Amino acid sequence: MTAWQVEVTDTFAGESNYSWVRRYRFNAPDGTCDNGIVRRARAAAGVRGRAKRVDYFWDGMAVWNPGGDCIVMFITACED
Q1: Quick check: helix, strand or coil at residue 78?
Q2: Which of 16, 50, 56, 60 has the fewest CB atoms lying closer than 10 Å?
Q3: What is each CA distance from 73 to 56, 78, in whole angstroms?
Q4: d(Cα 63, Cα 68) in Å, to the nearest integer?
Q5: Residue 10 near residue 20, CB atoms below 8 Å
């Protein structure tokens, strides 16, 4: 099992603003596909809607931008 952290925050001019932030954690089995991680992160944070853009990075991080909302969600693998 891998532990993941989710940060949901607001955006200003398309960039993360952090005037407020909500953090969540969830576990996923090792080998879960990227889309599975994003689905679990969205469920943990209670975020609905379609993604305008999802960027995946090799270091275990994804950025999810929903269309129409001024929020961004960062998904990172936890070290512990």
Answers
A1: coil
A2: 50
A3: 12, 15
A4: 16
A5: yes
Residue 58: the pLDDT is 62
Q: How far is the C-alpha of 62 from the C-alpha of 76, rounded, in Å?
A: 7
Within its chain, how far is the Cα of 67 from the centroid?
Answer: 14
Q: pLDDT tens for the chain, 80 residues: list them.
A: 889 999 999 989 878 899 999 999 999 998 888 888 888 998 999 887 766 677 777 666 777 777 677 888 888 988 76
What is the residue extent of each domain of the chain? 2-77
What's the pLDDT at 80?
Answer: 64
Residue 64 has a pLDDT of 74
What is the separation of C-alpha 29 from the centre of its chain, rounded to a whole number of angstroms? 17
Question: Distance between CA atoms of 25 and 53, rounded to whole angstroms?
Answer: 22
